[in-house]
Write a structure and sequence with these properties.
The chain has 355 residues and is mainly beta. It has strands spanning 12-15, 38-44, 59-61, 66-70, 77-81, 87-90, 96-100, 103-107, 109-114, 118-123, 128-133, 139-144, 152-155, 160-165, 170-175, 183-189, 194-200, 205-210, 215-220, 225-230, 242-245, 250-254, 258-263, 270-275, 280-286, 291-296, 301-307, 313-320, 325-330, 336-340, 345-351. The model is unreliable at 1-36 (pLDDT under 50).
């Protein structure tokens, strides 16, 4: 496959903006009381069009107190300081107009993952992944892929970035031994469309879903071999995002209107389910608090749940967000950032009862 670096000038602008083993059938969803309401503010993304911005994956850099927002057709990757809510803008990523389901839209930067001092940004406009210094925001090298990137995941154990590429049913693997210079290092062909990811560096596993097959896969990072295939019960629409509690090997699978917990330690059986409302895509998990964060675009809600040692999710808070708002990421102090693409904004949510 052809590799090239994209030599694009970099401009940075500062913008101030105001269960143990259980029975085969999973237990019924928790009916525990929940707390509604929250403190929600909105950050307008620079350059957003009146009809919004194509937003997909956000990335949270908890060590540096930043949230990375690849902002689609604006051609920007916006970096939010979670302490001040200021936005620094990395400009002039390529964009292109594409048609999907009969509607044209501008696409560009769409995904990010935090690596070793570098953040990698995937771009659907030119099928590239670019390295950006996580502190200075200076751009490093870019690599062009054979297929449009969807999700990106940094695998620290092997010093690689794994890229889900559903259009050719594969995972593309980048060598980032030299962090600022990603290089194509191989691929894994799958029997379906990969969607979502979770990385367990301690055990050396990478997880993804096959959205069109309603399957969840475990892949050994060192050998790049699929070592387990499990069947969640997401239905025709298929599974979406993933998160892993590594201490108990509890794998959380996002379905369109609920989250399931699978036993990744044993046979992938479903341990519990939690209803969240419709429109779930990617999810985020805060290990130190065993807390899961799920933004449902159709229901316009953010659900916060606690995961116990048996794999049961207990709802602890529900917040109202906005129609179309999805793909939450959470900071170490439990402030949640949600992509509100239709409005060209990022919602900052402090869930009531979330702590």
């Amino acid at each position: 496959m052809h590799l090239r670096s994209v030599g694009i000038p970099l401009f940075v602008t500062l913008v101030a903006v105001s269960a143990a083993q259980r029975a085969t059938a999973p237990p019924a969803p928790s009916q525990a009381p929940t707390k509604a309401g929250s403190d929600v503010t909105a950050l307008a993304l620079p350059g957003a069009a009146p009809d919004g911005v194509a937003l997909d994956y956000l990335a949270v850099d908890r060590a540096r107190h930043r949230v990375w927002v690849p902002a689609g057709g604006t051609g920007n990757t916006d970096v939010i300081d979670t302490g001040t809510q200021e936005i620094r803008r990395i400009e002039k990523f390529p964009t292109i107009e594409m048609e999907r389901r009969g509607k044209k839209r501008m696409v560009g930067p769409s995904s990010a993952t935090v690596g070793d001092g570098v953040v990698y940004v995937g771009n659907r406009a030119d099928s590239s992944v670019c390295a950006v210094d996580a502190t200075t925001l200076a751009r490093g090298a870019c690599v062009t892929l054979s297929s449009m990137p969807d999700g990106l995941a940094f695998v620290a154990r092997t010093k690689e970035v794994w890229v889900t590429a559903p259009r050719d049913q594969s995972i593309l693997i980048l060598d980032v031994t030299t962090p600022a210079t990603p290089k194509l290092a191989g691929s894994i062909h799958l029997e379906g469309d990969p969607e979502g990811f979770a990385v367990d560096d301690g055990h050396g596993f990478f997880y993804t879903n096959l959205e069109d097959k309603d399957r969840t896969l475990r892949i050994e990072a060192s050998t790049r071999k699929v070592t387990a295939t499990w069947k969640p019960s997401c239905g025709e629409a298929g599974p979406r995002g993933l998160a892993i509690e590594t201490s108990g090997q509890l794998l959380m699978v996002a379905c369109p209107d609920h989250v399931e917990v699978l036993s990744a330690l044993t046979d992938g059986r479903i341990l519990s389910k939690l209803e969240t409302g419709d429109g779930v895509d990617n999810i985020d998990y805060l290990p130190e608090r065993r807390s899961l964060y799920v933004a449902a675009a159709g229901a316009a809600t953010l659900t916060v749940a606690r995961l116990d040692e048996h794999g049961t999710l207990q709802r602890v808070a529900t917040s109202t967000t906005a129609k179309g708002a999805r793909n939450a990421v959470v900071t170490s102090d439990e402030i949640v950032y949600v992509a509100d693409g239709p409005e060209g904004k990022v919602l900052v949510v402090r869930p009531a009862g979330g702590r």
